[in-house]
Every structure is written in structure tokens, then in C-alpha cells.
Amino acid sequence: MNDAPATPAPTLTYVYAVSAPVPALGEVLAALKGVAGTPVTLLPPSGPVSFTVSDVPRADFDEEALKAHFEDLRWLEDTARAHHRVIEVLASHTTVLPLRMATLYQDSASALDALRAQSGAFAAQLARLSGHAEYGVKIYVRPADRPAAEPAPAAASPGKAYLAARRAQHHAHEDHYRQAQLATERIADLARRHTAGLVRHPAQSGPLAASATEENVLNDAYLVADPQADAFRAAVTGAAQDLPGIRIEVTGPWAPYSFAAP
Question: Which of 79, 80, 92, 219 is most deeply buried (CB count within 10 A of its CB)?
């Protein structure tokens, strides 16, 4: 008696991004593993716009499973890395419109219906992003150094000397904030000459901050045309050369995550 073939486990369609198909992109994605180690394909394989998709296990990605997974930092990190890796491969070959992690449809037919319903808007966004990349600009304020102790008058108490030193340190820190504001104004002026878009993100703090000692006071994303990239990076990096107490960090190029919304 022959065993009946195993019934395939139910799946959902996971969508990474919208892209403009180019020759051989399907072959590039065929060698890539996506979220949960699943194969990555184009839907449809050709046309003015396509979704990049994987079939993921429904048991791991339905609503109840995701509620539990979103409390699991290891799962979140692994899934975010796999999602980002697919988008970065796409972005190295074509214009890409990244979608949020865990963008899911019941099946490929539902995903294809959604793509076709929004194909005009997607095509317009891809045209706007073509030949551009995202760059991050962060400004950090360094903590003020504790001023060197000055000889105190003989009559001065230790308490008064401490308060005087704390006031001097506070004034130095305020000066660093003023320098950060000046750098922000300079960058805004430079951006008008070199960029095509700006998205302001909340300043990072806690585990998201890059430094335990510096304070992030600006966290912007810019859309920069590829021919302007070197000039933009040089101009922004130089905006704080004469401003002690702050640090500017420029990152990128990235896929245009911050500019994916219409």
C-alpha cells in the first residue's frame, strides 16, 4: 500500500519590495534565500512593476504567530536582516521601493491583485526614486569636559567650589547644543543644493543610540541623486569642522526606505 503524498503546509505570500524588472534579476534572486530561509521570486516575472516575494509558512506568519514573534528579539533581528538583505540585492540591480517587514498576503493571487490595483502609483514612485539613494545624517553632541579646577579663594567652601565647577560644565554643554544648532542650519542650506528629499526621524536614544556618551540630536534621511552623492557627503561632513563639541555622521548609500511612501 502506497503512502499518500504529503500535503504541502499552508503558506502566506511575503512581499519585500516593489521593483522595476531588469534582465537577469530573476536569476539573481533565484540564488538568494529570504525570510525563514525561503526562495525569493518575482511576481509577476516581467512587466512594468513587480513584487519580490517568498512563500512563508502560514503557521509562523499568521496574525497570532506574529504577535508572539514580535516579542522575540532574536526572531526580529533575524527576520529584519533577511528582509534587508533581499532589498539590498534588489537595490544593487534596479530601482526599488522597499516595503515594511512582514507585508503579507493570503496568497500570490491576492498579492498580484494588490500590485495591479496600485501599479500606476508604484510606477510613479519608482520613477521618482530612479537614480537616487538614501543617505542618513546624524548629529551627536559630545558631553562637556569637566573644567579644570581653578584655585579657590581661601574663604570658599568645598560646596561653593563644586557648584562653580558644575555651572561651568553646564555652560560648556549649552555651547555644544548651540554648535549643533548651527551645524543643523548649515546642513539644511547644503541640502537644498544637493538633495531631492528629506525625511526627519526621531533622535535615537537608549539601545538605538550609536554611543553611550554622545547624545543624538538630529537623525535625518536625504534622497540624493547618484551624481551628487560625493559632493553631498563632503559638504555635510565639512559642516562641523570648526564646531568643537559635536560630531556629524553620514551613512549610506541605502535603498530608499524613508522615501517609500507616496
Answer: 79
